[in-house]
Amino acid sequence: MPRFKHYDYNQTKMLPIAFDRQILPGSFEYTLDYLVEHELDLSIFDHRYGNDDGGRPAYDPRILLKVVILAYSKGITSSRKIEALCRDNILFMALSVDSQPHFTTIAEFISSSHEEISALFQQVLLVCGDCGLIGKGMFAIDGCKLPSNASKEWSGTHADLNKKRKKIDRAVRRMIDTHKACDQRDLDDTFTEREQQQIKTLRKASRKIKHFLDSCDDKHGVNGQPIKSNITDNDSAKMRTSHGVIQGYNGVAAVDDKHQIVLAAQAYGQAQEHGLLEPMIEQTHAALSHIGHSKRSIQKTKITADSGYHNNTALHYLDDNRLDAYIADKGFRARDPRFKDYSRHKPGDRLRSNKKFTPDDFRYDLKKKSCCCPAGKAMWLESARVKIDHHYFMRFRAYEKDCPICPLREQCLRNANQKSPRVVNINLGISREHKASLIEKMKHKIDSPKGRHHYSKRLGIVEPVFGNINTTIGIRRFSLRGKDKVNGQWQLMTMIHNILKIHRYGWEWA
Q1: What angle do CA 199, 200, 203 make, to 5 degrees?
Q2: Lowest-confidence range among 307-316, 352-361, 375-384?
Q3: Is residue 4 part of a domain?
Q4: What is the DSSP annotation of 115-184?
C-alpha cells in the first residue's frame, strides 16, 4: 500500500516580508520605483487634493502611478484586477507598501488624469533624451486602430438611428396589441413576464436613442456629408481593420528611429488618416524642442509615413515648412519593379464571375485616332483631347447599334441594363502643371533609390511599437470612453513603452 507525506491545513507559518528587498536591482520594478521617486515631478497632481485642513488623507499619486504602470506593463488594465494584485501579489504589495487602494480609487485616478499623463509623457521623454535614446535622424508616423468601450451596434447617422427608434416603437406596439387581443387567462405567467420585460427593455432603448438625437448633432466628415455617430461614445468611430470592423479609436504615434522611442502620441476618433500628419509633426517638433533640439535640427530630420497620410494639403504643409519627408502614395508599390508580380499572389474572388474589360483590352492607334472594342467593332472618336483631373485622355465611344446585340455586353458594360454604349478613355499623359505639382515631386522623390532606401526604414521603426504594446505587453483595446480619456490612456500605453526602453537600454544598472 503506498505511503504519502502527511499534510494538515490546521497550522500557521509566519513569513516575514521586507518590502524594500522585494524590489530587486535590475528588475523593471526597480527602474519604475527609481523613475517615479527621483526623476518625475509629481507635484502636477497636487491641485487635485484640497485636504490640508480636514478630510481623510489621500493615496499618494506616486503609489497609484507605480501600481498602474506596473499593471499596464503586464497587460492588465482592469481596476478590479489591479486592486486584487495589490492584495495578493508580492511585487504590487511592495510597490504600494501594502496600502491596498480600492478599485474605484484606481479607476478614478486613471480616467481623470489625462492632463497629468500628458505632462508625465513629456517628462519621460526628457529622461529618454538624457539617456541618449533619442536620435534626430528620422521619425515615422503611423496609427494603430484599437476597439474602445463602445458598441458598434449603437452606431449610425441621425437618420439611421431615428429609423431604428421607429422600428423599436413599432415592435413595442405590436407586442402590446398582441396582449390586448389574446385572452390573458390562456397565457403562461412566465411567458407574460418575459414579454413585459422585453417591452421594458425596448422602451428603454427607444428613450436612449431619442435622448441622444435631441442632445447631439449629426457628425460630418471631411467632405461635409453626415457620418455615423455612436450613442455609447460619440467620439469613437467605426473602423475597418484586418480583424474586421471595430468601434474604436486610431492611436497615432510618431516614433524615433534610434530606439523606437515614441515622441508624440494622440488618439483620434476617425478611421481616415487624412489631416493627421500636420498635428503629429507639430507635436513631434514640440517634443524635440522640449528635450533641447533646435528648430534647425528638426528641419533636417527625415519624416516617413504611409499612403494614408498622402494628400495635397499635407504636401503643401511639408513644402511650406521645408521638411524632408517621404510620404508614399497609393501607386507607390505598383511603380516598384520589385513588386511587379505581387498581384498574382493575391487570392482571387470566387464570387466574381467575369472580369470587366479595361482600356488595355481595346485595340487603339493614337496616331490614326482609331479604336476597336474587344468584339472587333470599330468605335468613333468623341474627343481627341479631354482633361480629367490632372490627366489628358483620347475618348472613343461605341456605336449605339453595336452594344445591345454584343455577346460581350455583360463583360464590357458597367451595368447589364445600361442603355448607353461603351466609352473608353485612352491615357495621353499628365498635364504640364501637374508634372510640376508637389504630388508629382513626391512621387519622383520616393521612387528614387535614395527615397526607397529611406522609406524602407519606416516599417522597422513604427510597427515594432504597436507590436510591443498589443502583443508583448498585451493591451489590445481602450477601456475608457471619450476622446480626452482615451487619449490619456493611449499616452499612458506609449509612455510605458518608453519606460521599458529606459529599463532595457537607458540605465546600465537597470
Answers
A1: 85
A2: 352-361
A3: no
A4: HHHHHHHHHHHHHHHHTT---SSEEEEEEEEEE-SS-GGGEE-HHHHHHHHHHHHHHHHHHHHHHHHS-G
Residue 507 scores a pLDDT above 90: no
Query: What tens digit of pLDDT does each residue of 390-400 get?
Result: 778 899 999 98
> Rounded to the nearest 10 degrees, how much is the dihedral formed by the CA atoms of 5, 10, 16, 22?
70
Cα–Cα distance for residue pair 137/494, rounded to 1 Å: 21
Distances (CA, A) of 503 to 17, 73, 291: 26, 12, 19
- 22 exposure class (CB count in 10 Å sphere: 0-12, 13-18, 19+): middle
Tell me the three cell numbers of residue 55.
Answer: 478630510
**Domain co-membership, 292 together with 379:** no
Using alpha carbons, select from 234, 223, 274, 221 the residue that is nearest to residue 152. 234
Span 215-274, pLDDT tens digits:
888 888 777 788 888 898 888 998 888 888 999 999 999 999 999 999 999 999 988 888
Cα separations in angstroms, 49 against 45, 55, 61, 108: 8, 10, 10, 13
Q: Is the pTM of this model over 0.85?
A: no
Q: Tell me how far apart the alpha carbons of residues 36 and 30 are, in angstroms, rounded to a whole number.
A: 10
Grid coordinates of 323: 521638411
Contact 141, 254 (CB under 8 A): yes
Q: What is the Cα–Cα distance from 460 to 312, expressed in whole angstroms?
A: 26
278 in the same domain as 138: yes
Task: Answer whether 309's CB lies under 8 Å from 141's CB.
Answer: yes
| Helix (H) / strand (E) containing 238 | strand 237-241
Domain span holding position 40: 19-48+57-112
- Any domain includes 123: no
Highest mean pLDDT out of 5-14, 178-187, 477-486: 477-486
Assess whether 412 and 462 both reside in one domain: no
The length of the chain in residues reads 510
Number of domains in the chain: 4
Asked, for residue 298, whether it belongs to a domain, the answer is yes
As given in the structure block, the three cell numbers for residue 33 are 520605483
Q: Which amino acid is at 400?
A: E
127 found inside a domain: no
